[in-house]
Amino acid sequence: MTRNPVTVTLAYAVVPGREDHFHNWGWAVLRSGAQQPGFLGGGVLVDGEAEWHVVYRFNTEQAARTWENSLDWVQMAARLEGLARETGRRTVVGSRSWFDAQAPQPTTPAAPRPPPKWKLWFINMSAVFPPVLLFNLLVLPYLGTLNPLIRTLLLCLCVTALVTWILMPRLQRFFKKWLYPPLQALRGRHKRRTA
């Protein structure tokens, strides 16, 4: 074993129904590679039936490149037409970097999904209905002589100010667990883990 072997992983999207043919093709590729100097091994893997991988390893990057530029490789690649499409390639030099690359990487949590529309409607109605009702009962009787356009403008200005700066922030805090239950469950789990 050399100090800097190279591992190449080729990802493929296989045409549905042609999986067995692709599997046979992948192993034929590896048998062809096994005839080349410096070949260390390989395999054909499937990732949850969605993506297939052909993985091979050579003792040097030059040996891998020589095989990939050979007539054998070109002929094997031509047989892939109508069977699968290459979707990715990854080359890792050295054993240590291979294991480092396989180590789980920290993932950033996904943004919370927006609440369902009916919950948003409920919160909005809870914020808008009380000030509109109060405005109609307490203020509009005194503004009866005003132009309807000005009365409506005053209603909108007052209600939107109350809803935007006073009611909605409080209602969103109050109903936070109801609006975003998975987010609350995640935060609770995180607090338990750190405790």
- Provide the structure class: alpha+beta
The largest sheet has its strands arranged as 2-3-1-4
Give the termini separation. Answer: 46 Å
Beta-strand segment tally: 4
Main β sheet profile: 4 strands, antiparallel
> What is the overall silhouette?
rod-shaped
Q: What share of the residues lie within helices? A: 55-70%
What fraction strand?
15-25%
Number of helices: 8
Determine the mean pLDDT. Answer: 80
Q: How large, in whole angstroms, is the Cα Rg? A: 32 Å
Q: What's the domain count?
A: 2
CATH class type of the largest domain? Alpha Beta
CATH topology of the largest domain: Alpha-Beta Plaits
**Judging by the overall fold, what is the CATH architecture of the largest domain?**
2-Layer Sandwich
Task: Give the low-confidence spans.
Answer: 189-195
SSE order:
EHEEHHEHHHHH
Can you tell me about this structure?
The two termini are 46 Å apart. The chain has a four-stranded antiparallel sheet with strand order 2-3-1-4. The chain is 55% helix and 18% strand. The protein has helices spanning 19-34, 61-68, 71-78, 95-102, 117-139, 148-174, 176-179, 181-194; strands at residues 6-14, 39-47, 51-58, 84-93. The longest helix is centred in the C-terminal third of the chain and has 27 residues, at 148-174. The chain has 195 residues and is α+β, with helices and mostly antiparallel strands. A hairpin with a 3-residue loop joins strand 2 and strand 3 (51-58). Helix 5 (117-139) packs across helix 6. It is rod-shaped, with a radius of gyration of 32 Å. The protein folds into two domains: 6-102, 2-Layer Sandwich (Alpha-Beta Plaits); 117-194, no CATH class.
